[in-house]
Amino acid sequence: MTAPFVPNTTAKRQGISVLGEGYRHSWDGVLVELWEAEGAGGARAEYISEHPRLFVLLDQSGGEFEMLLSPDRKTAPKRHAPRQISFIPAGVPLWSRVSTTTYVRHLDLHFDMEALRRRLADDFDSEVFEAPRLMFTDERLMTFANLIAAECQNPRAFHELYGDSLTTALFIDFLRAAPRGTRKRSALASWQLRRAIDYIEANCLRAIRLEELAELVGLSPSYFSHAFKAATGIPPHQWQTDARLKRAQQLLTDTAMSLTEVAAATGFYDQAHFTRAFRQHKGATPAAWRRDRRS
Fold this sequence. Notes:
Elements: E1 9-18, E2 23-27, E3 30-49, E4 53-62, E5 65-68, E6 78-80, E7 84-88, E8 94-98, E9 102-111, H1 113-120, E10 133-136, H2 139-153, H3 160-177, H4 190-202, H5 210-216, H6 221-232, H7 236-254, H8 259-265, H9 271-282, H10 286-294
Antiparallel strand pairs: 1-3, 2-3, 3-8, 3-9, 4-7, 4-9, 5-6, 5-8, 7-10
């Protein structure tokens, strides 16, 4: 199991109040933080990290939220709008300020470059991480950012493989948004696919990391994720969910276990989570599916 990534950061705030305790979740080499804050008129902050980060402004109301790469007021600020993303390289200080009372909800993704290099392998391009990119828009990145925010906020996160997949997909798209060529991925070889599927199905009731599956077949996590989907048509975490549901179907058919007991025995958080997943993938609730089979 990979140790949680803990970034070294320094923050100075004046007139800015953090609302609540926020939410945090650590995936392989990535720490995700979800924050809500309110700044009074004239509030400002300075932030610097030894690791690069992505700042995603999810929601904003009230005044204007400005960002600067210099504390000098002569420097023209950039006004950050909701659904915009900023990348700040390691060691680059960032200043922000608001003119009137402003509410913001934002997502921060701090990441370790060596872990990202290992995860992305041939997708990795260090030059992309050298220059700041403030306030750009990308709908695919925003889709992943919102999914990551929801997963970070959920006290019963789906499973580790899902979070690894989301963060990997986000960073791949971030790299591809830069002006560089990409190479089409091929599917897994038959022996790689068989080994990965056997491993997922044997361990489907516990949290599986994307890195585990990639190591089994000698690929980087990002390459493995693409190649697995190219071979099967679905991402690895979906295969794991299907494997859990197959076990649930067997228990529904062969035992008198309650739905709550089946949910617990097949790795779901509770009966409601089990029912949602079952209905989504099988087209009927577990209770209805069981009744149909018994009749």
